[in-house]
Prior knowledge:
Blueprint: E1 9-11, H1 28-31, E2 39-43, E3 47-52, E4 60-63, E5 66-70, E6 78-82, E7 96-97, E8 100-101, E9 104-105, H2 108-121, E10 133-137, H3 143-156, E11 161-166, H4 167-176, E12 183-188, E13 193-199, E14 202-203, E15 209-211, H5 215-229, H6 239-249, H7 256-262, H8 266-272, E16 274-277, H9 290-334, H10 341-350, H11 356-378, H12 402-448, H13 450-479, H14 484-499, H15 510-516, H16 528-537, H17 542-563, H18 565-580, H19 583-589, H20 607-616, E17 619-622, H21 624-628, H22 646-657, E18 666-669, H23 679-688, E19 699-701, H24 708-719, H25 721-727, E20 729-730, H26 731-737
Parallel strand pairs: 1-16, 2-10, 10-11, 12-18, 18-19
Antiparallel strand pairs: 2-3, 3-4, 5-6, 5-7, 8-9, 11-20, 12-13, 13-14, 13-15, 16-17
Helix pairs in contact: 4-24, 5-6, 9-11, 12-13, 13-14, 13-17, 17-18
Amino acid sequence: MLGAGNGMVYEIPDGPADPEAAIPSFDFATMGQNGGVPLVIDNGPRTCRAGWASEKDPRLEFSNLVSRYRNRKLSANMMLLVGDSVYTDPLAKPSIRSGFDNDVVTNFDVMESVLDYVFTMLGCVEEQVNQPIVMTEAVCTPYASRKHMSELMFECYNVPSVTYGIDSAWSYYKNTGSFSTDGLVVGSGNSTSHIMPIYDARMHTEQCRRINLGSDSMDDYMLKLLQLKYPSFPMKITDWQARQLVDKYTYCAQDFEEELAGYLDMDGLRERDVTVQFPFPMPSLDERTEEEIQRATERRREQAKKMQEMAAKKRQEKVDMRARELEELTTLRDSKGEVSETEYAQRLQDANMSDEQELAEAIASAQQVVNRALNKELGIEPEEKEAPSFPLVDVPDDELTEEQKAEKRKQVFLKGSHDARERARVEKEKERARQAEAARADEERRRDHFDEWLADIQAKRNEVITRMEDRKARRRELNDRRSHASQMRMRNIADLAATEPLAGPNGGGAGSKRRRRGDPDDDFGAEDDDWNVYRDISKEEEAEEDEEDEAEIERYNKILEQHAPDFLESLDREARAKIERTTMYRFSEGCQPAILDKPAVQYKPDNATIVARAAREYQLHLNVERIRVPEIIFRPSLVGLDQAGLLETIDNVIKHTGRTSLVSNVFVTGPGFAQVSGIVERLQRDIRSIVPVGTPVNVRRAADPLRDAWRGAALWSVNEPDAFKASRVTRQDYLELGGEYIREHGASNRYYAFTATNSPAST
């Protein structure tokens, strides 16, 4: 797994694939004739395996889960799903239950549903199961759990006998062939890991040691590390996905410190980093060809032309209407001498004109519109407007009548507005002239002294960037109430609050009240609400300054893009390199190039780039997590567990048994840490450091850490008939000695009889 990186992207689905429909067996009666073939059940916390002891592999292998729920669309009654089918119905997921708690069976209602499913799928159609049962159980199983399991077997299913054994021990038997070979079994389960010595042809559970870490611990730790590393990841990482990451991409470092240092090197990170792609929504893309884009552009051009023609037609219609209106108004004006005053007044009224002055103004307005359209058609420049005159402004009031005084006030107001517009126009012309002169001088300097001009533009751009960064730093410092700037600001606010009186009917304020009671000190800021007020009033007009600086930066970028594009590209390269050099970026983004929020060189990304960027938002990079997660079995303190690690626990077991020779046959099995790549080599290396020099050390792993427990139990029940017969707890034993009773054998827990006055604990 060390070389799982190298730029490869590994996809992970949302959840497990839909399971194939389980096919029930119909040979139960044939296989169980005369009760000769035992039925073996490997009852694990995560997976249950069941089948006949005479077969090589189990017939059933399913998730040890049950969901009892109601789906009114399908049935009015409660529905029951067992195994992998619990994931097929979304309504069943909230009701998923397991019969285990820390590798021990505690929920026997769930367990009964699981066993019903096992016996039904194996073809048992009778009211009782007539075959002997071989079942695995956890190391040092509590008597109460075994008692309820035996009660379920004998009372519910009427089995003739049941044999209990430890899964790790039977896995050892499968890979060794017998219990006569001494060894040290490291059995790692879902919640716990055990170190168990085997000598004198049996498992000595009274000398085993437990570490409260298993595969679930690795899954939880992986999930916590990823949540800490990617706090704003756009989707939820499920427990199932975390388990897939642990199973596929973690490995055990031979030297944790040295391996961890290798991740700080870019080449080492590139070799070890794993990119995991989660499902992501596909962004909307413009998938048109160049030909289609050209056709669309041509259509838009034609539409714009048609709209211009329509607008011109409407303008012409408006001009024609005003021309007809002008003709009618002119005819009305010329008819004054031809008709009587009464008839002329009636015609004015019919034309909605109050007097001849309004008629003259309407004629002038229409004439202006017609002349403007005619001049535009002939290409004649419009004449400049004559400056308005204000003859009454300079005339003294005593020389004017009341009507003239009112007109004078109107002319004074109009003259003030006119003068203001003229001053603004003159200032604009001066500003345009100044800008034109500056542009001319700048262009001349660029042409004659290009290097100096370029250095000046770059310096101005850097000055603006520095100003923006200083504001950001100051903003961060003010937001931190423990900073010196923030404390000084708060002190100034407190001084203002102490000295400024509050307006009120009696005068005075907070400051005067403090002075009256002789308290010169101010406790403003002791409460969180005071700091909330401080944050509100400390918001300065920095947003506008940032916008102005960003606009100035964009203007400099356009100039440099036109005359020195290499400089902008070098700025982007430096900015990316600065980001990529940070350790946090390397661990969170791997060796991928950084994406700048505001690059100096603007470009339009193509479809492939858009999809790649959308995919990156849903990518995780596994690097240090690959070795940090499995390291918890050697260093439980990484997850806050106050226990000895695996090596110290092995050393404790060896010293407790006094059998150093056990290290010559260390066997690793189980669904937990045994599946991590490199665990065998790591144990081989570490155990040598705790035993005398020259002591033979041999560590091996089960051929199949997951299924060898079932295979070992099946093989043992067939190859060791005498031992199997002696280990069977019959119904009579159950009735006489209790449900917690077991017959000891090489792979079993120890049984200690107890009385009412002295109740020993299971070791």
